[in-house]
């Protein structure tokens, strides 16, 4: 009787292990194609889910979108470093968090075939990591949204210095650099272009011009759409989404400004690396790029037409050369100095 009971328990345990293995996300054979892929992203949830559904439609498998802010996702990947749970990380407002992550050992190297021929830096824009730790999937431009009912096109600011014109006093919003990565990029860029002493002087004047400095990177553009501000500093797609929704908003690409790719990376040691690589391939394919374009992002694939007036070819002459090593070395210090000076 004891032998029979032991045999039944053994069979039950073996069946349980088989069931659990079949359900595991990292099993690339689980659904006959690519298995389950865990997709970390801070980008617009509806857009990211649309990307996942289109991938499933074309390639099978299942894409589990895990949405959270960039810093939260990075902290999660650090906490999971000894037992990674994610497969792909896409988006973070540009390359800066990916540059930092490359030093932390949480993202792996993978360059899709379409990006193999790219130089690391193209026309002043870093489009992929020198060791293949990330590759850009779209282009973000930092510039000025303006309300077309309050500001005529020819009167809108065209340079960063134009924001200091007395006519804009009390009519500008930009995000709080202590909270927003978008605004931190703005501050770091001005420090690199002007030098720190002149850069801090510039921001002392700009703070006096501003009516508000909200914590959210997209809030100034929304304020422009509602007529609460004449000018708002933000990324291009924020303005063009508002414009497409019928709001009185347009966008200026400043003469010299940060233009960054928004990257994607494979998670180092993730449970389904082959599925993750296929998802990255998809993001750079025409199908994936078209979804990004439909959400008013500038696609990096030249075969896909942007839904906005902006294209990579058209904006690259505006790009400033960002010293990424300087950014990595000074990111936290500059943000802390901002808090000390202006909060």
Characteristic terms for this protein:
eleven-stranded mixed beta sheet, Ferric-bd, single chain, signal, alpha/beta, 12 helices, D-Maltodextrin-Binding Protein, domain 2, Iron(III) transport system substrate-binding protein, disordered N terminus, 42% helix, two-stranded antiparallel ribbon, 17% strand
What would your notes on this structure say?
The protein is an alpha/beta fold. The chain folds into 2 domains: 2-139 and 259-310, Periplasmic binding protein-like II (D-Maltodextrin-Binding Protein, domain 2); 140-258 and 320-342, D-Maltodextrin-Binding Protein, domain 2 (3-Layer(aba) Sandwich). Helix content is 42%, strand content 17%. It is built from 12 helices and 13 strands. The strands form 2 sheets. Strands 1, 2, 3, 4, 7, 8, 9, 10, 11, 12 and 13 form an 11-stranded mixed beta sheet that branches. Strand 1 (36-41), helix 2 and strand 2 (62-67) form a beta-alpha-beta unit. The longest helix is centred in the first third of the chain and has 22 residues, at 2-23. Residues 1-24 form the signal peptide. InterPro entries: Ferric-bd (IPR026045). Keywords: Signal.
